[in-house]
């Protein structure tokens, strides 16, 4: 358990909790540990190396074994990445030549000859019927022997592991950070929060837990620990019930409520009773989730507890036996009547709902006086709206031009993306600009104005993480909409998957698009070679795990966009397989090396989304000839089987265009707001850092920062979002 908790800290913070052990002469073992880390793209900070050097050799070796397992998994090196073509990317055959080679071998095989001849006679051939197609024809060790050694390069990735505090302190800090996050967490982080809450719920708590899903997870742990529950709406109780049943605390997916223990039932009913007793108007919130409340009532048996009559009222409203006029129904009536001023008066009591309705109100307002009233109300309630919502609305109106031909893109909580034509009436430009200026003023008021702001390279174009669900779990993963430089001559994508029980075939492909987003060409199992690239070959089953690769020489690619994608051709979905992840590597010149070299991995992200086609990111050639990546984290519905790049190229192109053309709020925007007249702003160039405390914002933490510095890196970028 201690190792898994230590691993959790390393993954989230890139800090190694203070290593323990007897004192000794561990310098040699520590240097060997550092060298082993280098092979997977990591290294020890000077402070951590010094700490380990003062421990016994046995303590260092013990720490090294645990840490190497963790970082290998972070980068995807914990599994064996075999390639179908043994010396990939060299000697990849043309597609037709390869297929004919497989047919020839099948005809020479007594067990398959008759079946293949019959198929050929009918003019249709199933590739899976060929014994050598889609299954590795060599072992992993034979593949390694056929590959040249990797030549180390100064451009290889180096991720520094820093010295942390005691494990208990690190766990408490991480718990407080995740529980008190101002933005929703992704599924993996929410799962980690549950692990931390089980340990930390009785101890120190964040000042507030603004995200409701986080509160549900914390309440589950507090209930088990016998602590008071944090409840202020009836929906908080419903989310807690979902957590206790192992269901979806976001309430997006239906939960099958389990039979709950008597103490749990009493706690839920007492919580509902207290919330409604304090504010009977909260009964109106039941309407948004009537069906789940009805099913929960069947499990809680409120009639057995007459001392909590207000709890019984909740289920009476859900069943339609008691009236509680909902806020949304009152609002809908006013909007149906185009009563903008009435809607504004009502929405003033619900600032978040007012902000989400601003676009609609400005569009349906009859005249300038009504639009002025909408804007005045927005300015008045802005201080009561969460920073995440203010930023989301600011980004929305930034993309709201007077007239636009670009389609609208929607992405749900599970990463499913789709586009629709934008047929909304424009918002008057003057009103839009006034609102944007007011939102900027409100955000500037909330943000700190540090004396000295130190910025790391490549952080300014990172999109603000307004939701943890806009970022996949993994290493070096940036939020959706971020733009990052691509420095290297060879770009290599990889996908790994391991099926749970059914034969599962994932196909790694790359769609190459012209500047107008029309198709140029593609790389896939049906097109093993294209201008500038090679595919490693189709693997059609993964009982022991399988990998596919695409290698591209960027100076040979003539397209404007490169869109890697993972298509589910057959079998289990991304959320059903035992494991699946995608990533990319960058290599210089003639580095050679195996198909998968961990120190060249720039990004590795988990594939866990609702859809049959995954679109992790897109690469674009800029006017200066350099390549940059824009992060997508999207999934398309696709079809139940046989998804192929040829069939989905139109839908992929539309989604890519919509997201590439959208302007996202970035770290640069917040830095500009924070940079007051008294703030010294400087870019860190990789050299020595200042001796005094600074606020540092960058992708990775530099060594040697003053201990009183505030540090925001990719791992805690959400801390930039004001409350």
From TrEMBL:
CDD domains the record matches: TerD_like
InterPro entries reported in the protein's UniProt record: Stress/Tellurium_Resist (IPR051324), TerD (IPR003325)
PANTHER family, alphabetized: CAMP-BINDING PROTEIN 1-RELATED (PTHR32097), RING-TYPE DOMAIN-CONTAINING PROTEIN (PTHR32097:SF18)
Protein name: TerD domain-containing protein
Annotated organism of origin: Streptomyces phaeoluteigriseus
């Amino acid at each position: 358990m201690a190792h898994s908790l230590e691993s959790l800290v390393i993954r989230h913070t890139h800090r190694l909790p203070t290593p323990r052990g007897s004192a000794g002469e561990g310098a040699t073992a520590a240097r060997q540990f550092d060298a082993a880390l280098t092979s997977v793209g990591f290294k020890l900070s000077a402070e951590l190396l010094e700490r380990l050097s003062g421990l016994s050799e046995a303590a260092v070796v013990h720490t090294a074994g645990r840490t190497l397992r963790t970082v290998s998994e972070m980068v995807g090196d914990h599994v064996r990445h075999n390639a179908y073509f043994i010396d990939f990317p060299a000697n990849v055959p043309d597609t037709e030549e390869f297929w004919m080679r497989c047919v020839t071998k099948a005809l020479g095989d007594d067990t398959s000859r008759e079946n293949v001849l019959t198929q050929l006679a009918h003019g249709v051939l199933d590739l899976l019927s060929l014994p050598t197609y889609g299954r590795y024809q060599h072992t992993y060790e034979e593949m390694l022997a056929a590959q040249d050694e990797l030549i180390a390069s100064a451009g290889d990735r180096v991720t520094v592991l820093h010295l942390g505090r005691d494990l208990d302190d690190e766990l408490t800090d991480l718990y407080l950070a995740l529980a008190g996050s101002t933005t929703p967490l992704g599924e993996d982080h929410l799962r980690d929060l549950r692990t931390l809450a089980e340990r930390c719920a009785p101890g120190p708590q964040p000042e507030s837990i603004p995200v409701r899903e986080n509160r549900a997870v914390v309440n589950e742990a507090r209930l088990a620990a016998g602590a008071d529950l944090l409840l202020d709406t009836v929906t908080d109780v419903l989310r807690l019930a979902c957590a206790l049943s192992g269901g979806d605390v976001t309430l997006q997916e239906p939960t099958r409520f389990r039979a709950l223990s008597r103490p749990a039932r009493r706690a839920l009913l007492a919580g509902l009773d207290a919330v409604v007793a304090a504010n009977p108007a909260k009964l109106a919130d039941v309407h948004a989730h009537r069906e789940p409340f009805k099913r929960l009532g069947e499990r809680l048996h409120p009639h057995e507890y007459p001392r909590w009559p207000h709890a019984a009222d909740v289920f009476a409203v859900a069943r339609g036996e008691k009236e509680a006029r909902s806020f949304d129904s009152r609002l809908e009536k006013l909007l149906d009547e185009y009563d903008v001023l009435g809607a504004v008066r009502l929405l003033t009591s619900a600032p978040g709902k007012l902000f989400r309705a601003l676009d609609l109100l400005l569009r349906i307002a009859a005249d300038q006086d009504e639009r002025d009233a909408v804007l005045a109300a927005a300015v008045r309630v802005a201080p009561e709206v969460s920073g995440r919502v203010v930023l989301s609305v600011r980004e929305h109106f930034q993309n709201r031009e007077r007239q636009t031909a670009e389609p609208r893109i929607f992405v749900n909580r599970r990463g499913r993306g789709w586009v629709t034509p934008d047929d909304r009436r424009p918002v008057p430009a003057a009103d839009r600009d006034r609102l944007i200026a007011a939102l900027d003023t409100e955000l500037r008021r909330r943000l700190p104005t540090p004396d000295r702001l130190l910025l790391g390279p490549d952080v300014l174009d990172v999109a603000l993480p307004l939701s943890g669900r806009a970022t996949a779990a993994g290493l070096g993963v940036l939020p959706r909409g971020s733009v990052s430089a691509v420095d290297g001559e060879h770009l290599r994508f990889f996908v790994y998957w391991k099926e749970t029980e059914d034969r599962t075939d994932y196909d790694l492909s790359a769609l190459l698009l012209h500047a107008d987003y029309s198709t140029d060409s593609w790389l896939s199992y049906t097109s093993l070679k294209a201008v500038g690239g090679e595919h490693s070959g189709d693997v059609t089953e993964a009982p022991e795990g399988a990998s596919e690769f695409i290698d591209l020489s960027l100076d040979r690619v003539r397209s404007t966009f490169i869109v890697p994608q993972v298509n589910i051709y057959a079998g289990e979905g991304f959320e059903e397989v035992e494991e699946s992840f995608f990533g990319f590597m960058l290599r210089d010149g003639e580095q050679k090396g195996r198909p998968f070299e961990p120190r060249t991995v720039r990004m590795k992200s988990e594939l866990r989304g609702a859809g049959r086609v995954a679109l992790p990111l897109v690469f674009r050639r800029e006017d200066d000839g350099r390549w940059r990546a824009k992060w997508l984290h999207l999934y398309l519905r696709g079809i139940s089987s046989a998804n192929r790049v040829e069939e989905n190229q139109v839908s992929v192109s539309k989604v890519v265009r919509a997201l590439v053309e959208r302007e996202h709020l970035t770290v640069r925007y917040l830095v500009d707001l924070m940079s007051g007249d008294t703030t010294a702003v400087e870019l860190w160039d990789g050299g020595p850092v200042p001796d005094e405390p600074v606020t540092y914002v960058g992708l990775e933490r530099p060594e040697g920062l003053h201990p009183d510095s505030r540090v925001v890196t990719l791992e805690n970028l959400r801390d930039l979002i004001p409350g």
